[in-house]
Fold:
Amino acid sequence: MSENTSKQHGLISKSNTKMLVMLAIAGAVLSFSTVVGITLIKRMNYQAKVIGERSKVQKQLKANVAAVDSLLAAYKNFDEAPESVIGTSDSNSKIVLDALPSKYDFPALATSLEKLLVSGGFSDISITGSDNEATAEQNSTTPAPVEIPFTIAAKGSYVNLQSLMNNLRISIRPFKILKLDITASAGVDSMNFTISAVTFYQPEKNLEIPLQEVK
Structure:
């Protein structure tokens, strides 16, 4: 093999080596660019979702702010009406809270029932139930009426019992009678009775703004 041929082979070999190195570099750059491109697209899509959710929140906040004045005016008209929804001089906000209190307050319930029974002419009055105020739900993001069970035991006439049942029926606060047991003796005007019933309260609305994760 001549010296010129040997030089030509050497140049070709170097050229091939350079070509392979360039191809390897180009492949690495292409792979890196592809990974970076995919990452950027995912990040752009995520940012678009975040911006979309933020726009929804801003739109809702603007609508809420715009509705504040009309809401306050409507509440004031409702609460300060010359006559309440049940025809009394009390404010409607008081009527609503009397009808459906926002707290589980069994002692207050027992006191109001006792006054009703005493004024109704009953004796041997006993009001029992569970005072679950410490464990009861006091606020919620989706409040709904919650039962408060109780039992009334007392002694009185049949006419008085009829009046009591009617008072519970027409009460602004809802009462649901579950069971009525009556024990009476012949020739005796008074009778012993036990009423098992439930009333209700509704936890306060929780106005905390929840955090939402954008995926």
Q: What stands out?
A: The mean pLDDT is 81. The chain has two domains: 1-80, 99-205.
